[in-house]
TrEMBL record:
An MF annotation (GO) of this entry: acyltransferase activity
Pfam families hit by this protein: Acetyltransf_10
Signal sequence, start to end: none
Protein name listed in UniProt: GNAT family N-acetyltransferase
Source organism (scientific name): Candidatus Thiothrix phosphatis
EC id: 2.3.1.-
CDD domains: NAT_SF
Sorted UniProt keywords: Acyltransferase, Transferase
Length: 139
């Protein structure tokens, strides 16, 4: 099996939903909201994909300014292809697209904490989330 990696090759919303479902990430994404998923795909500005022939087997979807911060929003690898280094290679290729001062930032599922730690990520407990529909409190 030879995996081919591509940078910013467009994928369809259905392909994106499918790879999320074939990974563990589909459980934590709004895969039943096609409009939202379409927006996620269309408004990303860095997409690294892994292909086994014409089958999408992995994706790293990011939003970045390429110079200071890159938010790796989705890292998904088909369950049948996990533990083969595909996720790590997707991150390496993502990192290679960024400037020398750019930080790679992600929010990990609790079960993935050990994975990211072994790759060299630092856990930083300063993340804050304002849920959709929640109003900012006046000061």
């Amino acid at each position: 099996m030879t995996i081919q990696y591509l940078i910013n090759t467009p994928i369809s919303t259905n392909q994106f939903i499918d790879i999320l479902c074939r990974s563990t990430l589909g459980e934590r994404r709004p895969i039943d909201d096609h409009e939202c998923m379409e927006g996620m795909v269309n408004n990303s500005n860095l997409l690294v994909t892994a292909w086994d022939g014409d089958k999408l087997v992995g994706v790293a979807r990011s939003m970045t300014d390429f110079h200071y911060a890159c938010y790796l929003s989705d890292l998904a690898v088909d369950r049948d292809y996990q533990r083969q280094g595909i996720g790590k290679q997707l991150q390496i290729l993502t990192r290679q697209q960024l400037g020398k001062h750019c930080k790679l930032i992600l929010i990990a599922a609790p079960a993935a904490n050990a994975y990211y730690q072994q790759l060299g990520y630092a856990a930083i407990p300063r993340c804050w989330v304002l849920d959709a529909g929640q109003a900012l409190e006046p000061s």
